[in-house]
Design goal:
The protein has 571 residues and is of the alpha/beta class. It has 2 domains: 397 residues, TIM Barrel (Alpha-Beta Barrel), CATH 3.20.20.80; 55 residues, Oligo-1,6-glucosidase, domain 2 (Alpha-Beta Complex), CATH 3.90.400. It contains 17 helices and 18 strands. The strands form 4 sheets. The chain has a 7-stranded parallel β-sheet, with helices on one face. Helix 6 packs parallel to helix 8 and helix 13 packs parallel to helix 16. The longest helix has 18 residues. Bound molecules: alpha-D-glucopyranose. Alpha-D-glucopyranose binds next to loops.
């Protein structure tokens, strides 16, 4: 029995239109591989990954079968937040290379048919940015301070911050400067928020977008896209008052409707190129409002983090898929799927944590608590985590829409929890005085070779410490092994290209809520067993034309074992 996708009938024409578009743009169903440049490959032996390092691994990227790479920031930065504190938006950090290195990398990727997406960080600059340095020097009341959000303090002598707001990384959201004024920073102190009501701020970002688009980049990932626009009319509300305000587009700080005026202007810029440049929003907003960012007249696509936040649980996965497909068809964008990125505990570890199966406990919270409790590997069933991670990945790669993969997940890399306090880098760790451990454990430089210095990352160590066990996961060790995670990802990504059709799926009822089965147009079946009991495939399917073309675990017969995904092609 099949159940058609549950869409409102008035949304269905959009779906049909998408299905019949013969040349859908590349981004709609791309496999995008996120590179965290400082931790990918280090060509000049300074312990920090760089752009020539990426170029040196083009063969590896091409062999994966990805459609695009997204590069986290590689711009000049004092690294107060891993590069998300940008000192100059139109240059390359000298430790990572030069603009010529960027051009060479871009050309090499393009030559292999891989598109390039760069990260734009518009909510805040680095405190080292020329504008902020100018604002500090120019003093209170100056035009230079208008580009940021400076206010007088409260209390005697203005010694208290303007409000009691907290920064996302912990601690106060205001910092006092030498002459007594305060500036707003929603993230680290070294990341002053820009004033997006200022025309120069708007103009400058258009210049930046054009700078990279002119060089040939194919798209942009927009950092905290929901925070740029702010209503800071006095009197400013308190934190408690802010928390009570509805998040319906009128909130003073988050997800304001008028942020889309900025993106409408950017869209004109993107569409002035041939082909139009793409953009994907990182917007942590109410799910009912995410489509606003994904509309073609706004950024065009938005991350959907629901699976990343979900437990490995069949009914939960099904609900998320159904909801998101309906939502994205409503915006006429395609959906996005993410299991790991540079901000969360890697999914191979998340799914292996004891207690991770409890759908009532947010897995990201469970993982953060585990890190805080010392991150003992005894608390992780590594085999189970890996089994579930590859099952979830094959499930996601079968879905309509784009899949965003994070470097290292193709190696089955677990989170590194054993980083000494002195070696930590994440501002979250320092701003919460260690009450939150932060994101360093998913940013440890990749292991390329089991027996080389820094596991082949580079010849002079690695900026975050790699544990001894990293060698087991090295690329070189997995390369020739057909049973390795790397081989599975490669086969999956290549097959996905071949099997990919219109952006539709149909659920097939399995009689078990812990077994999800969907079929894509053309007869590409994806069956995931989230449970612990084997699942026997329907006879007709098991005996069908192509049979099982891929499995995350040993599944050659008609049985899908516990916590595994199989792909079956019937055409
Ligand atoms: C985004 C990035 C994160 C960064 C933050 C501030 O959430 O993904 O890494 O710390 O924005 O720029």
């Amino acid at each position: 029995m099949t159940t058609p996708l549950d869409l409102d009938s008035d949304l269905r024409p959009d779906l049909d239109a998408a299905a019949h578009d013969e040349t859908p743009p590349w981004w709609r169903q791309a496999a995008v591989y996120q590179i965290y440049p400082r931790s990918f490959a280090d060509a000049d032996a300074d312990g920090i990954g760089d752009l020539p390092g990426i170029t040196s691994r083009i063969g590896y990227l091409a062999s994966l079968g990805i459609d695009a790479v997204w590069l986290s920031p590689f711009y000049p930065s004092a690294l107060a937040d891993g590069g998300y504190d940008v000192a100059d938006y139109r240059d390359v950090d000298p430790r990572l290379g030069t603009l010529a290195d960027f051009d060479a990398m871009l050309a090499a990727l393009h030559e292999r048919g891989i598109k390039v997406v760069v990260d734009i960080v518009p909510n805040h600059t680095s405190d080292q940015h020329a504008w902020f340095q100018e604002a500090l020097a120019a003093g209170r009341g100056s035009a230079a301070r208008e580009r940021y959000i400076f206010r007088e303090g409260t209390g005697p002598g203005g010694a208290e911050p303007p409000t009691d707001w907290l920064s996302t990384f912990g601690g106060p959201a205001w910092e006092r400067v030498d002459d007594g004024q305060w500036y707003l920073h929603n993230f680290a102190r070294e990341q002053p928020d820009l004033n997006w009501d200022h025309p120069e701020v708007r103009e400058d970002f258009v210049t930046t977008l054009r700078f990279w688009a002119d060089r040939g980049v194919d798209g942009f990932r927009i950092d905290v896209a929901h925070m740029l626009s702010k209503d800071l009319t006095e009197p400013l509300p308190s934190r408690a008052e802010l928390d009570l305000l509805p998040r319906d587009g009128s909130h003073p700080l988050l997800d304001r409707d008028d942020v889309h005026e900025i993106y409408a202007q950017w869209r004109e810029v993107f569409n002035s190129y041939d082909p139009p440049r793409t953009a994907v929003a990182e917007a942590w907003v109410d799910p009912s409002r995410i489509h606003l960012y994904a509309r073609p007249e706004s950024l065009g696509q938005a991350f959907n983090f629901d699976l990343l936040e979900a437990a490995f649980h069949g009914p939960e996965f099904r609900r998320i898929v159904t909801d998101n497909l309906a939502r994205t068809h409503g915006s006429s964008s395609s959906s996005t799927w993410v299991l790991s990125n540079h901000d969360v505990v890697r999914h191979a570890t998340r799914y292996g944590l004891r207690g991770a199966e409890d759908p009532g406990l947010a897995p990201t919270k469970r993982a953060a608590q585990w890190l805080l409790d010392g991150g003992s590997r005894d608390e992780v069933d590594a085999e189970r985590g890996h089994r579930r991670a590859t099952a979830a990945t094959l499930f996601v790669l079968g879905l309509p829409g784009s899949a965003y993969l994070y470097q290292g997940e193709e190696l089955g890399l677990p989170e590194v929890s054993e980083i000494a306090p002195a070696q930590r880098q994440d501002p979250t760790y320092f701003r919460t005085q260690g009450a939150e451990i932060g994101r360093d454990g998913c940013r440890v430089p990749l292991p390329w070779r089991p027996d080389a210095p820094a596991f082949g990352f580079g010849d002079d160590g690695s900026h975050l410490p790699q544990p001894e066990w990293f060698g087991e996961f090295a690329v070189q060790r997995q390369e020739g092994d057909p049973a390795s995670t790397l081989s599975l990802y490669r086969r999956a990504l290549h097959l996905r290209r071949r099997l990919q059709g219109p952006e539709q799926l149909e659920w097939i009822e399995t009689g078990r809520d812990d077994v999800l089965h969907f079929v894509r147009p053309g007869g590409w079946h994806v069956v995931t067993n989230f449970g612990e009991a084997d699942y026997r495939l329907p006879d007709a399917l098991a005996a069908g034309a192509g049979g099982i073309v891929l499995a995350s675990a040993d599944a050659s017969g008609p049985v899908v074992p516990a916590e595994a995904t199989v792909w079956i092609a019937t055409h």
